[in-house]
TrEMBL record:
Protein name as it appears in the record: Golgi apparatus protein 1
Recorded superkingdom: Eukaryota
Predominant location: Golgi
Topological type in the membrane: Single-pass type I membrane protein
Length: 1106
């Protein structure tokens, strides 16, 4: 115990009378108890100016009374006493002292009375004989407190020791006595043991001794203590260019604040500053145990709170932040827990740090997060002070010191209810220009207050989100950590309000940077983190595994375990929480610390003007993946890989696709991690009626992103990674990988390789990828880039998806640019070989395929549909689509696999001149097929009857041309019509009009006749000549028309060879005439030859004889 200042002049009579008063009270039930309880709200101002010798003289001159000296009987105070104090208190010196000390601020007492009171208090606290009263009243307490029992008697140390330990006093009489002594001591700083000796120089340097001196109350020195406290707070906040208070004085100031922590009357400056506010806000709150302080703290930012009281409360709160013991209620409630969890015995820390409120909060919060038991009373106190720190940034000296510039620039005028703190959070989140020390101070404060554990700690958030919580999260208990998660789930929904959205994202920005600040995640994953990521305690950090890196470690082990062959996996509960956090982070790119840090430059460069909607930042980065810096590209690529494995990470997309998921994909959505199944399901059902535009756009965007790198398609990557490494090394783009693998599969198939180089599981997944790519031209980047201008010119109003743009390009193929035309032709060739890749055909004919071709091989699907095209059950739209594909096949033999296979030997034989002029990418415009028709008119219908007949869906155009053959002027067109007539004579199947008209007759009359080689046509002709057979009128009419057409065609059709010419002459009615004329021409030519021989020059005999 420090040596106390002693005053040698002792007023023995006063001390004896006082002793008599307490002794008598102790012996009776009413004595001390009644007197002391009546004075329970004694004042506590710790300060006053120095006294001079006149005070002592005045005290010495006081008359001695044999019956007991009373303050009320003294002339110096009689007038003031009569004016200010109730009469019933006059017989009790301590009641009179309390009355005069706690008078109203605007009430004055005489100088003589002030001097008399001062001497009375001074002698009470310094007279060694006064200890005998304490010994008698606090006998058992002194024995319990060993430190006080060991104090040397007779020097006044005992009373000071009891005041120091008054929080441990349980004996009622002693507690009341010490409370009265405390009220006396704290009314003047010079009465506090040792205070003057330790702080004299600091008082003079800081000019605290001149505060409120004068005639008003020269002995009321609470302002001196308040001045020193402000100096101490300023020193902590500024640290540089500020006077440094001596260490002994600092301890004395903090000790005074601690001793005045239970009753606000003991803090004389705060008592006088807040007396009216106490009556306004805390009228029904009983003094003691820090209750008035807490009440005033809770009303600190009320509009009716006086500025002077608010300032005094802030100063006290700042002292509490430096030493938690200055809060009586907190120190008392958490005393056992602090001892239990060794929060106050860490020898590695300096006592100043150990005593800080932040250290206490972190230590006890760590115990709570580890599942340890902390008393409810202590947790309640912690909640109050965590809320206090979040409400007023100025209570955190690090923020005041390091964030001063940001506050002045961006957040001035917001100093209440946590608004300044949220403003700083917004600056850090949105602008990214915050000083590192300020950012670190904010992060530290969020960890200390831990608002993730209870949203009510953040008053700004609580007020902004109250309506959302009441509607969207009403099923969750108030204060539950799941409230924040619930709010995040409703972010960007109709239930969210703008102010709540801003406050929530500002807080989540900092919570996301330390995995421990999400209490649910920490509780579920702390064992996994310690086992796998080598983390330490909740309030401990490691430079090898900083807080931001722990979550990265966790999600690496939650995903990709199969891919990377990891044996160490997360527990199921932890994996669920990791997934939840990833879902939340996908809502805003700034909630992913690694992504924001590495992509800050790229976000500004590529996405500053394209991110008006939530979640668009990541989409923008994915769209510009090739343009990003290497660091940003890596983190975006990794995140996209995670999305491909678990698309539920894309919370906004899943929210938009909820109707489709519920109808078609709910089984996949229920999986903890879907391994790509859910996205595959969404792609397959992209054109269902439940699919809305937002979902369709999101699904298509993800498909487009997948084309940038085959790793972005999880199922494809897992199925084909070994095949890619072996067969397609150094190829990254998915479309190139698909082409590479599919080419390998095709070559192996054509060469009948027994062991195909591409594995079976890869071939199956490759098939899925090829089918997906056929749905949207944008999923084939090479085709899309080649035809971009053509799409703009010819298909501008056609929507992407459903292969509509591809179909448009096919329909306008003749007007396409050469490069686009070549690409479309290659696509058609691929589709004809494998009709399942023809998205439009498969979509339009989906039901017909199920009806007619359910057992057919995928590669024979079109052939099957063609065979059933004229069925009565065939859907008209499907029939039209089949005909379009047949017409396409007639443009080039390479688009007709059946014809190509059947005629592979004859095409080079008869049509080589055409092939010589052709290239692989250019169409032959039907030249090869026309060539084959002319050579094999009677055989082609048998082999390719459907293809030959595919000139028009119903044959009406040909019918029109046939009827009007005489009117056709164009020789080339006339020639083609004649060819059609010739082909139709070979088989009725290639004449749609006649075949339709005679379908029933063929069924009844010619059912046993196989088609081809004109057999069914001959059968009908015989039936027409047979009068016993009654054909359908329409069939009879069409057959008669055909006979007439064939007759005319025979007349006008030019002979294509000598055999045709001979046949026509022999079959002509005028063949005799023709043969006679031909004979005469021959004779004539012979005679002319004879004559010409005689006319030539005669050769002389001489020449002959030579």
């Amino acid at each position: 115990m420090a040596v106390c200042r002693r005053v040698q002049l002792l007023l023995l009579f006063m001390s004896l009378s006082t002793r008599f008063f307490f002794t008598q009270g102790a012996k009776s039930q009413g004595g001390v108890n009644e007197n002391l309880v009546d004075n329970a709200d004694m004042g506590k101002n710790p300060g006053a100016p120095l006294q001079d010798g006149k005070l002592l003289a005045a005290a010495a001159s006081q008359p001695r009374r044999s019956t007991g000296w009373k303050l009320a009987e003294e002339e110096a105070c009689r007038e003031d006493l009569t004016r200010l104090c109730p009469k019933h208190s006059w017989n009790n010196n301590l009641a009179v002292l309390e009355c005069l000390q706690d008078r109203k601020e605007d009430t004055e007492i005489s100088t003589d009375c002030n001097h008399l009171l001062w001497n009375y208090k001074l002698n009470l606290t310094t007279d060694p004989k006064f200890e005998s009263v304490a010994v008698e009243v606090c006998k058992s307490t002194i024995n319990d407190i060993k430190e006080c029992a060991a104090e040397e008697r007779g020097k006044g140390y005992l009373v000071s020791c009891l005041v120091d330990h008054r929080t441990n006093i349980t004996e009622y009489q002693c507690n009341q006595y010490i409370t009265k002594m405390t009220s006396i001591i704290f009314s003047d700083y010079r009465l506090i043991c040792g205070f003057m000796d330790k702080c004299k120089d600091d008082i003079n340097t800081l000019h605290c001794g001149s505060v409120n001196t004068g005639e008003k109350d020269v002995h009321s020195q609470g302002e001196v203590i308040a001045c020193l406290e402000k100096g101490l707070v300023s020193e902590v906040e500024e640290q540089t260019e500020h006077y440094s208070i001596k260490e002994d004085c600092k301890k004395a100031i903090m000790r005074v604040a601690e001793l005045s922590s239970d009753d606000f009357h003991l803090d004389r400056h705060l008592y006088f500053a807040c007396r009216d506010d106490r009556e306004r806000f805390c009228e029904n709150i009983a003094a003691g145990e820090g209750r008035i302080y807490k009440c005033l703290f809770n009303h600190k930012f009320e509009d009716t709170m006086s500025g002077k009281c608010r300032e005094a409360l802030s100063t006290r709160q700042k002292l509490i932040a430096q030493d938690y013991k200055i809060s009586y209620s907190l120190a008392k409630a958490c005393k056992q827990d602090l001892r239990k969890y060794r929060c106050s015995v860490d020898t590695t820390l300096p006592r100043a740090r150990e005593a800080k409120l932040s250290y206490l909060l972190l230590c006890l919060e760590s115990a709570v997060h580890r599942g340890r038991t902390v008393s409810g009373e202590c947790q309640g106190e912690m909640l109050d002070y965590r809320r206090m720190l979040m409400e007023d940034y100025s209570l955190s000296p690090e923020i005041v010191l390091h964030c001063r510039g940001e506050i002045d620039t961006h957040c001035s005028g917001l100093h209440h209810k946590g608004r300044t703190l949220h403003c700083l959070m917004r600056v850090s989140r949105d602008k990214g220009i915050m000083d590192n020390l300020c950012q670190k101070a904010l992060q530290t404060l969020v960890q200390e207050t831990d608002p993730g554990a209870d949203y009510r700690i953040d008053r700004a958030l609580n007020e902004a989100c109250e309506s959302v919580i009441q509607t969207a999260c009403k099923h969750i208990r108030s204060g539950d950590p799941m409230i924040l998660s619930c709010l995040m789930e409703h972010l960007y929904t109709d239930k969210m309000v703008e102010d709540c959205e801003h406050r929530l994202l500002e807080l989540q920005y900092f919570i996301s940077r330390d995995w421990k600040l999400d209490p649910i995640l920490y509780r579920k994953c702390q064992n996994d983190a310690a086992r796998i990521c080598h983390t330490h305690g909740w309030n401990e950090t490691s430079e090898f595994m900083p807080p931001g890196a722990v979550f990265s470690c966790l999600y690496r082990h939650a995903y990709r375990t199969e891919e990377q062959g990891r044996r160490v996996r997360l527990s199921r509960d932890c994996k669920t929480e990791v997934q939840r956090i990833l879902h939340q982070r996908a809502l805003d790119v700034k909630l992913d610390p690694d992504l924001q840090r590495r992509c800050m430059t790229d976000l500004g460069k590529w996405c500053s003007e394209k991110t008006t909607e939530p979640g668009q930042e990541l989409e923008c980065l994915q769209d510009h993946l090739e343009d990003l810096g290497s660091d940003c590209r890596d983190v975006v690529g990794n995140l996209t890989e995670l999305e491909s494995e678990d698309i539920q990470i894309e919370a906004l997309l899943i929210r938009a696709c909820e109707p489709v998921i519920q109808s078609y994909c709910h089984d996949m959505a229920d999986n903890q991690i879907d391994t790509g199944d859910l996205m595959e399901c969404l792609v397959l059902n992209k054109h269902q009626k439940e699919m809305n535009e937002k979902c369709a756009v999101g699904v298509t965007h993800f498909q487009l992103i997948q084309m940038k790198d085959f790793r972005f398609s999880y199922k494809f990557k897992m199925a084909c990674k070994e095949d890619v490494l072996k067969l397609c090394p150094n190829i990254k783009k998915k479309v190139d990988v698909v082409i590479c693998l599919s080419t390998t599969v095709r070559n192996d198939t054509l060469q009948d390789v027994k062991d195909q180089r591409v594995s079976m599981k890869c071939r199956r997944q490759l098939r899925v990828e090829e089918l997906e790519m056929s749905e949207d031209i944008r999923l084939d980047p090479d085709l899309y880039e080649s035809c971009r201008q053509d799409i703009k010119d010819h298909c501008q109003n056609v929507l992407f998806g459903n292969a509509q743009v591809i179909e448009c390009l096919k329909d306008t193929k003749k007007r396409l640019s050469p490069r686009c035309h070549q690409k479309v032709f290659k696509l058609q060739e691929k589709e004809m070989i494998d009709p399942e890749l023809d998205f439009q055909l498969m979509r339009v004919c989906k039901q017909m395929i199920r009806r007619f071709c359910s057992e057919s091989d995928a590669k024979n699907m079109l052939q099957c549909l063609k065979q059933n095209k004229n069925s009565e059950l065939m859907d008209p739209k499907c029939k039209q689509m089949i005909t379009k594909r047949q017409i396409t096949q007639n443009t080039d033999y390479r688009l007709n696999p059946v014809l190509r296979k059947a005629c592979k030997a004859d095409i080079p034989k008869f049509c080589q001149p055409i092939l010589n002029k052709a290239t692989d990418d250019n169409e032959l415009e039907g030249q090869v097929i026309s060539c084959l028709k002319l050579k094999y008119a009677d055989q082609i219908p048998r082999l390719c009857a459907e293809e030959v007949a595919a000139q028009e869906q119903t044959g009406q155009v040909e019918e029109c041309l046939k009827v009007n053959l005489l009117k056709i002027k164009n020789e080339a067109c006339k020639k083609e019509v004649l060819n059609i007539l010739k082909e139709s004579k070979a088989d009725i199947f290639v004449d749609p009009v006649l075949h339709t008209a005679c379908a029933l007759d063929i069924k009844h009359q010619c059912a046993a006749i196989p088609p081809g080689r004109g057999r069914q046509m001959s059968c009908l002709m015989e039936a027409l000549q047979d009068k016993r057979v009654r054909l359908q009128p329409e069939c009879k009419k069409r057959l008669q028309d055909r006979i007439d057409m064939w007759s005319y065609a025979a007349k006008v059709a030019p002979a294509e060879g000598f055999s045709d010419l001979a046949s026509q002459v022999l079959s002509s009615p005028a063949k005799s005439y023709i043969l006679t004329m031909m004979g005469m021409c021959v004779v004539l030519l012979f005679l002319m030859g004879l004559l010409c021989g005689r006319i030539t020059k005669r050769v002389t005999q001489e020449l002959k004889d030579r």
